[in-house]
Amino acid sequence: MIKVAGSFLSIVALTVSASAFAQHAFNDADKAVEYRQKALSIMQNNFAVMGDMVKGDIEFDGTIFAERANDFAALTSIPWIGFSQEGAMPGNNTDALPAIWDNWEDFVERAEKLQQDAKALQQAAAAGEQGAIREAFMTAARNCKGCHDQYKD
Ligand code: HEC
């Protein structure tokens, strides 16, 4: 019985996540904008704490840094789906520039690069090597700025 119930539940879970993936729940452009902005904002919260430590504005704490780096790495994959839907084009409520959809491959490449940067930062943080941490942080920060310069108002 338990086994049957368990596999039923996992089928339900699979079905739910599969349909959520197909639709991304973004039939509504406002929802897509809200989703990506919130995701970027939480990503930024984690990045900013690390930035304060790298700059020396707050004391470096290797444990906290590694936690923030883990969350940052997880979050760097989240925002981008909010840019992908037809109808999620910019309106008054977004700083996303139309150039994103004219240069979609470049935009996606930058988003993927950020995820690689975040993994490198996560590894440096886990190893606790401050020089490598600083370098990996700066690489990621340059990617934020590069993409914002091109695609954010
Ligand atoms: C691939 C391009 C790209 C990269 C890389 C990128 N951003 Fe952004 N970011 C955007 C765009 C486009 C917007 C505008 C989104 C909107 O308003 O709909 C944005 C908006 C934001 C916002 C504002 C969210 C809000 O509440 O409106 C924050 C904060 C942010 N980014 C932080 C970062 C940080 C920190 C990094 C690097 C760690 C980063 N971004 C990397 C494209 C990018």
TrEMBL record:
Record GO biological process: electron transport chain
Entry annotated with the keyword Cell division: no
GO annotation, cellular component aspect: periplasmic space
Coiled-coil zones: 104-131
Record keywords: Coiled coil, Electron transport, Heme, Iron, Metal-binding, Signal, Transport
UniProt protein name: Cytochrome c
Domain of life: Bacteria
Single GO MF descriptor: electron transfer activity
Keyword Signal tagged: yes
Residues the record lists as binding heme c: 144, 147-148
Posttranslational modification: Binds 1 heme group per subunit.
Region forming the signal peptide: 1-22
Gene3D superfamilies cross-referenced by the UniProt entry: Cytochrome c/b562 (1.20.120.10)
